[in-house]
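Board notes (copied after class):
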Amino acid sequence: MDKKAVMVCGHGSRDPEALREFELVGAGIRARLPDCDIETGYLEFARPMIRDGLEALRQRGARRILALPGMLFAASHVKNDLPWEVNSFMEAHPGVEVRLGRDLAIDGKLLEAAADRIAAAELAAANSSTGGRIARSDTLLLVIGRGTSDPDANSNVAKLARMLSEGMGFGWAEIGFSGTAHPRVGPAIERAARLGFGRIVVFPYFLFTGILVKRIYSETDAAAALFPEIEIVKAGYLRDHPLVLDAFADRVVEIDGGTPTMNCQLCKYRTQIVGYGDEVGAVQAGHHHHVAGIGTDVDGHHHGDGHHHHHHHHGEAE
């Protein structure tokens, strides 16, 4: 096999629209890396599963696969679940090497893509029949992250908000989370509304739509009705922005050309972090077997394995 083999590893969702958007990103990566044999797959809630994609590449002759996390920040999925998937596949197929890349993280290209989405929302508001031309200095930027049980990943949302706010000239920045971490979306908007700004731009820092993004927008609409004196604007999420696709392509080159490493300085699994000392050295293992492959595929068909599972719910899941 002459082509480099690349496995794009998505989170997965029960929302068919989210899966279609992930496949759009996969198509964009293929267009940027025509010399690569690329498969896509999901960690949970959808098919094809990651191991299905890895097996498809192996069947086509791949013996060295570059695995690309389709996730913004490194929390439990990137630190534990994906390594478990990769290591399990290599254990089952000793002749295949799978090199796992790092999360997209805070990247210059992603910051530019985020700024484009925010600016587009501002322009749409200014051009609407009810919107006015409110200066950025009179606007508050509210960045909504996914929310995880990993404080390192959550802190990146705060850093991102500051970099966007200061770089774009907003009057202030606040953060919120769709689940697991606090403040949640509703309380975050209510707090922002009391700070005296004429406009609030709510920006979900997500790659794709899904239950969580739609919930964020629904809660934003509810807040807009609660605070009619403030213009509350919904910005689009990243989706298949060209710079997002460029950032993915950069990660593939990074995996292939060196040893990509995540920031482990503040990782609760590697370092004594205040309040998380009992998680240092935790076993690196997958935690979502009960939802692997269930839900929908990209055509919206439901899948199940015919077995009953004990289900528990995570704030990270869509």
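Comment from the instructor: Residues 108-127 form the longest helix (20 residues). The CA atoms of residues 18 and 209 lie 5 Å apart.
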